[in-house]
Design a protein that fits this description.
The chain has about 300 residues and is α+β, with helices and mostly antiparallel strands. About 35% of the residues lie in helices and about 30% in strands. It is globular and about 60 Å long. It starts with 10 loop residues before the first strand and ends with a strand. The strands form two sheets. A seven-stranded mixed sheet has the order 1-2-3-4-5-14-6. Strands 8-9-10-11-12-7-13 form a seven-stranded mixed sheet.
């Protein structure tokens, strides 16, 4: 049953859209971290997400970020959708998170219509980082020597334990989150609200979102000190880490947590997607130290300046 209205009507992102959206999103093969039901649902208020159905195989997602409006397409537009997309380009400030396969399938007719008015830009700030699961699990060779030393230091200083993040351990993860949050600068926005809602979704009775999440909680001498939560996403056998939090006073906790997450994944996972850096130079440097093997490239279409 279709619950998302046909274009030009939009509806707010809500849990009630799960039965329609989750199977569709699971069929997408580009592996974009934002385009999973849990990610879209948990960030719905942050970006004021709304959905419209362009056709049976294509949805429009719209939102707001830093005072500008954007839209994304989920799926592939048909020839009958092209005029609707032209309308969206005029209505919103930019088209965000166009996948490489969407870009490759843009028709010559569509490209001719936007030529001279819009630029297609490789959006490096929003590219997802991909890592080999085995690299993060084993930390092999000289490239990972410093990371492995920090893991060894954590294991030498404490008696570590790793448990699945589920309805039984989510309160331990919440303790870590609250301690992490208390150490943040209140003037700098964080994903604390999204983390709280993600952990709340781990209730044993909450099957719709809980069933697609998996994660770990790390303990040091019996105290919870870190946790990570993510999901398997379609395309290239990857697992996306949506949230990762640790208590900084425990040296090596993030390196240990990163490895523990990789070790916890099933053997059919080849890649770990650790999302984007959003143009933050410090975050970019940190992500690069783990030696990404590839990126999930995304494009933006914006009006020519």
């Amino acid at each position: 049953m279709m619950t998302i209205p046909a274009y030009p009507e939009f509806t707010d992102m809500a849990c009630s859209l799960f039965d329609e959206l989750h199977p569709f999103l699971s069929s997408l093969e580009d592996g974009i971290s934002e385009f999973t039901f849990p990610s879209l649902f948990l960030h719905r208020t942050k970006y004021n997400y709304k959905f419209s159905r362009l056709s049976d195989g294509c949805y429009a997602l719209c939102g707001e970020y830093k005072g500008r409006t954007f839209f994304s397409l989920l799926g592939f537009m048909t020839a009958g959708d092209e005029e609707k997309v032209i309308e969206l380009l005029k209505k919103f400030d930019y088209w965000k998170n166009m996948s490489a396969s969407q870009k490759d399938t843009l028709s010559s007719d569509f490209l001719q219509k936007i030529e001279g008015s819009y630029d297609i830009i490789d959006d490096r700030d929003n590219a997802d980082y991909l890592y080999y699961r085995d690299d993060l699990a084993l930390l092999p060779g000289k490239s990972f020597h410093k990371k492995k030393n920090l893991v060894n230091a954590f294991e030498a200083a404490y008696t570590p334990e790793v448990k699945p993040l589920d309805g039984y351990t989510k309160e331990d993860a919440r303790k870590v989150l609250d301690e992490w949050h208390a150490d943040r600068d209140p003037a700098i926005p964080t994903d604390y609200v999204q983390c709280v809602e993600a952990l709340n979704s781990m209730d044993l009775e909450n099957k719709k979102i809980c069933m697609v999440f998996s994660g770990v909680v790390v303990y040091a001498d019996g105290k919870p000190v870190g946790w990570a939560l993510g999901e398997k996403i379609p395309g290239n056998s990857s697992f996306c880490v949506h949230f990762e939090k640790g208590i900084n006073s425990y040296k090596g906790v993030y390196q240990y947590l990163n490895r523990a997450t990789a070790l916890s994944l099933p053997s059919d996972i080849t890649y770990i997607n650790r999302e984007q850096d959003l143009g933050d130079e410090g975050l970019r440097q940190a992500k690069m130290t783990y030696r990404p093997c590839a990126f999930v490239t995304k494009y933006r279409i914006s009006p020519k300046v």
